[in-house]
Amino acid sequence: MTATTQVHRGAPSGEPLLEAKDLYAGYLPGVDILNACNLVLHPGELVGIIGPNGAGKSTLLKALFGLVPIRSGAVTLHGEEITNLRADKLVHRGVGFVPQTNNVFPSLTIEENMQMGVFQDPKKFASRFEQIVDLFPTLGDRRKQRAGSLSGGERQMVAMARALMMDPKVLLLDEPSAGLSPVRQDETFIRTRRINKAGVSIIIVEQNARRALQICDRGYVLDQGANAYSGPGREMMNDPKVIELYLGTLATDVEAADAERRAAQEGTAEGGASQ
Ligand SMILES: Nc1ncnc2c1ncn2[C@@H]1O[C@H](COP(=O)(O)OP(=O)(O)OP(=O)(O)O)[C@@H](O)[C@H]1O
Questions:
Q1: Which of 23, 57, 204, 206 to mutate to test the pocket of ligand 1 (most atoms within 8 A of CB)?
Q2: Residue 145: its pLDDT value, please?
Q3: Is residue 244 part of a domain?
Q4: pLDDT per residue as tens digits for the range 84-111
Q5: Which residues pair with 109 in a beta bridge?
Q6: How many domains is the chain built from?
Q7: Residues 111 and 25 both lie in one domain
Q8: Helices 110-117 & 152-164, crossing angle to 10 degrees?
């Protein structure tokens, strides 16, 4: 199967909102981290990128957001080329990025962090702030608190809220659930889906592959900087190859399978005794 046929499997037809074609990108001269990487995001989609450690998932997001140089290939937004465009220009064109770490200004308050989100268009602040705190009520209640005094999950909220201040059409999320407790992870995934339902198309990189595929319309598996698999999220969760190579088997799945097997054996034994 060629990369191109894989990329479009399960994708809606029509003009992509954002498309990456045959990207080669890396940090050091002569060392490519992305190797002919492809990705398509259609309007309204929530697309997940999963894969092993070091596969280049974060690098792909950074390359899309102009933070890692693309050496070859092209990125388009609404069909217009945006390859290697600077991050501030991309924000202006409706692309937002939430980095995994160092994603808040710790000495600024929550409110000031959110002001930074609209520094290119400060007039937007008041109306956007009210809309965004509807999604993140905690941030509204604690607007005067310094971001540096927040927990990891709360900082993640601030970072996401700040990226939403410019009303992006595309949001790039780098491992938003990293380091959070299971409950906070769930909240993050639910919030991500809500933001998507509100009209923001999203690309999310996730270590928590199963959970990400549950909420995503489509997923991509990246391996060594290239596309290994792609398809509808739930289909990928049940694809034996993806499970074997990239999802592994959860202890709970093993326990459930063992319990089922024991129950079946006991059922057979009981059935045999009564005969
Ligand atoms: N700033 C950097 N300079 C040089 N190499 C880097 C830099 N950042 C990442 N890399 C290298 O790029 C490769 C891909 O890293 P990347 O963070 O994109 O992987 P990932 O798939 O997001 O991994 P993980 O799931 O572990 O976060 C790794 O080998 C990493 O060492």
A1: 57
A2: 95
A3: no
A4: 999 999 999 999 999 988 889 999 999 9
A5: 146
A6: 2
A7: yes
A8: 30
Centre of ligand 1 to C-alpha 26, Å, is 9
Asked, for residue 243, whether it belongs to a domain, the answer is: no
**What is the Cα–Cα distance from 8 to 3, expressed in whole angstroms?**
9
Rg (CA), the chain: 21
- Mean pLDDT for the chain? 87
Cα separation of 86 and 84, whole Å?
Answer: 6
Domain, as residue range, for 263: 250-275
pLDDT greater than 60 at residue 215: yes
For residue 247, is pLDDT > 60? yes
CA of 109 to the centre of ligand 1 (A): 31
260 and 186 within one domain: no
Question: Does the structure show a pLDDT above 50 at 272?
Answer: no
Locate 147 and state its tokens: 């971001």
- Which ligand 1 atom is at minimum distance from the Cα of 62? 18
One domain, residues 101 and 179: yes
Within-domain flag for 245:
no
Of ligand 1's listed atoms, the one at least distance from the Cα of 53 is 26
Of the pLDDT bands very low, low, confident and very high (cuts 50, 70, 90), residue 244 is confident
Two tokens at 154? 């709360």
Q: Within 6 Å (CB) of ligand 1, which residues are found? A: 27-28, 33, 51, 53-59, 207
ipTM above threshold 0.95: yes
Contact in structure between 92 and 99 (CB atoms under 8 Å): no
